[in-house]
Write a structure and sequence with these properties.
Layout (H helix, E strand, L loop, with lengths): L2 H10 L4 H8 L3 H5 L10 H32 L4
Length: 78
């Protein structure tokens, strides 16, 4: 993965380099060197793919629960 693509993916996911470093338990220094003195590691792309999928699924889950709550409240008999 090229450095610019890495940065674009982080931006799309609303993540900073600091966020990514904390999530992956890497030092900020190591992450900030991706694509410069060190290539972006090959695992980063699949890690970000998984993170993006989880984020999408969490959002979908919240939507489903909100709709279920709304339906349940409409079906209550007083």
């Amino acid at each position: 993965m090229e450095l610019e693509i890495f940065k674009e993916r982080l931006n799309k996911l609303n993540l900073t380099l600091t966020d990514f470093a904390e999530m992956t338990k890497l030092s900020y220094s190591a992450v900030s060197k991706f694509g410069k003195s060190n290539p972006v590691p090959s695992w980063v792309e699949s890690y970000l793919d998984g993170y993006e999928s989880k984020k999408d699924l969490d959002s979908l889950k919240e939507t489903i629960f909100a709709l279920a709550d709304k339906l349940n409240s409409q079906n209550k008999v007083i």
